[in-house]
Each structure stands twice: as C-alpha cells, then as structure tokens.
Write a structure and sequence with these properties.
alpha/beta; Rossmann fold; 8-stranded mixed sheet; Fungal lipase-type domain-containing protein; hydrolase activity
C-alpha cells in the first residue's frame, strides 16, 4: 500500500496554487516537490504502479512540468533522477526559450537513498562512495553528469536548474561544481546534502566549537602545504577561486547531523576572515585531513577535492522543531508554509 507521504493530495504543497518564481519559498518548494517526484517514480516502479495507479505525476504536473526523461542506474536499473520541462498554459507565458520571469525551462532532479530492498543496496553503495570522497568515480554520477552536460549544451546554463536531496544533493552539488569550473553557473537547490566530518556543530559551547575548528584548519592547512611540497604541480590549482562565483541554495536542518555541519562551516569561514586568517581557511577548506595525511606519508595518489568544498551559498536553515531525525532529514519539510527559517548569503573569493 502507498503511504500518505507519497500521495500529492495528502502531503504536497497544495497551497501553492499560483507560483511566483521570484518568491524564494515558492522556488524552493517547487524544487523540493520535483525531487520528491523522483522518489515516487522509483517507488511506482518498485510497486508496479502504472497508468492511473501511478502516484508520481501529480508531483510535477501540479506545477505545469512535464517529465522528459527518467535517469536510470546502469547497475540495478532503478530510477535515480529525472529531467522535467516547464510547460505552463499558453496564457502564462510566450513561446520564448528564455526564462524572463525567473522560472526554469528545465529541472534536473536527483533523489536520495530509498530504504527498500529493490534499490537500497545500490544506494548504500553510493553513500559509501560519498564517505570515501569517490562519488565522481561512480557510473551513476557519470550518467547524471552527462545528462547535465547535454542539457546545458543544448539550452544554455540559464535555462537549467539542479535539485537534489541527501545522496541526490551530493550528486547535484558535484554536477553543479563540475560545470561551474567551466563557467556555467546553474541555479541549484541542495536539500540536506551530506557533510562528512566530526559533529562539531552539536557542541553547545561556542568557544569550544570555534577552538576546535581553528585547530582543525591550522592542521589541515599545514598538511596541505606539505602535500604541495611533494607535488609542485598542485600549486597552480585553485578550485576555490573557480567555484566562488557559483552560489547554490543550500537547505539544512540543525537537527540533521548529516548536514548540520554546513552551518558551522560557513560561520567558521566568516570568523576566520574577520580575524585575518582567511588564507589559512581558504587553503584548509580545499582538502580533507584523511586524504592529506595519506598523501604526505606517501600512501596512494593525491586526494580528490572534498565534496563539501563550497565557497559560496545561499544558506537556508530550518529552525522549526523536528520530532526526530527522519523529519529533520526529510524532503517534505522544505515546502511547509509555516517554516521558521534563517537565510544567510555567504560569498567568499
């Protein structure tokens, strides 16, 4: 049986009968609903719900989107993503290819992990790759990345949005970073993206938190300098500068330990700049301690850029109480009309 959360008429943002594409809440809610549409697409496949029995279509049709393509994993053939095209009634727009009022022309959305037997094994494998900083080496990411490249190449970066939740947010973040390094800055909505580190944000004493983060930055920057000494070619590489102009919308919940560290991450960057230690943090944030240690001691090749390297972001923090981790990590929270949100813009060059 379908759960209530899968049924748009019971759980979707029915209050959004008229979308103002310049309204941040509306944009975030639509993006989150399109991601939920991918979750339900996969659940429809698993439960063999077709035609009038399918529950996924209302999640995009309510907002005048059309499903253009499903993104299929090459290992277990699950649906992990979707490409949507905005097709409003003719009375809402002209036939121009350009989005003149803030709406997207296409949205590429990626779901997160589904804890059902038909897809969990493969999803969990991808989660492990995130922990190892190896998502970029997976075939699922390459399939998603190729879809992004093709869409940007066909219709232009200004007509494409990215959206993802949890594992899907990691996919969207990595895809967005990849095209940003080529000068294409996509509108992106990243819901509860994983940030792999010690849960420093859960420490209540602000001075202790700040001290731990400063120590971590100094150690990481020192190891990064040592690694550069062993690999001179890396001195000219600066992914931070290449990414600084991209400002995705990052949505996190402080009660979700998988993504809450982003709150401290950006605040720490701000404080390091204020005390004149911005250069240390700029270097430290481009690396992971584990990868740097292995590089310095000569174990293996140079580590890949950390997934969480994100110089700039529109950070939206949901301060509304959460009953449990499932609610704090869930996608449904992001279209509720009664959210208590704190929004901050962080831009670092």
């Amino acid at each position: 049986m379908a759960s209530e959360r899968e049924v748009f008429g019971l759980s979707g943002p029915l209050h959004l009968t008229n979308i103002d594409w310049n309204n941040a809440h509306h944009r975030r809610s639509v993006a989150a609903s399109l991601v939920e549409g991918v979750y339900i697409l996969e659940r429809d496949r698993q439960e063999k719900r077709e035609g009038s029995q399918a529950l996924a279509p209302p999640w995009w049709e309510f907002f005048h989107f059309k499903l253009v393509r499903k993104l299929i994993d090459d290992v277990d053939f699950c649906i992990f993503g979707a490409i949507y095209e905005y097709k409003p009634p003719s009375s809402h727009c002209n036939d121009s290819i350009v989005s003149i009022d803030g709406n997207p022309r296409y949205v590429i959305a990626f779901r997160g992990t589904i804890t059902k037997p038909d897809s969990f094994t493969r999803d969990f494998e991808l989660d492990i790759h995130i922990m190892r900083n190896g998502l970029h080496q997976t075939s699922r990411f390459e399939i998603g990345m190729q879809a992004v490249r093709n869409m940007v190449g066909t219709v232009g970066a200004s007509n494409v949005w990215l959206a993802g939740h949890s594992l899907g947010a990691a996919m969207a973040m990595l895809a967005g970073k990849t095209v940003a390094k080529m000068g294409n800055f996509l509108e992106a909505f990243l819901f509860n993206p994983p940030y792999l580190s010690a849960p420093i944000e859960r420490i209540k004493d602000k001075k202790v938190k700040h001290g731990i983060r400063i120590a971590g930055s100094v150690i990481t920057a020192g190891l990064a300098l040592a690694a550069r000494g062993k690999n001179p070619r890396s001195r000219s590489e600066d992914p931070f500068s290449a990414l600084s102009a991209w400002t995705p919308s990052l949505c996190v919940n402080p009660a979700d330990h998988l993504c809450s560290e982003y709150i401290g991450y950006f605040e720490h960057r701000k404080k390091m700049e204020e005390i004149g230690a911005g250069a240390i943090e700029r270097l430290a944030t481009q690396h992971s301690l584990g990868g740097l240690f292995m590089s310095v001691v000569g174990k293996g090749v140079e580590a890949a850029e950390p997934l969480h390297l994100l110089p700039s972001a529109n950070l939206t923090v949901n301060l509304s109480p959460s009953n449990d981790f499932k609610q704090a990590h869930g996608i449904h929270q992001w279209w509720r009309p009664d959210l208590n949100l704190k929004c901050s813009l962080y831009k670092f060059k």
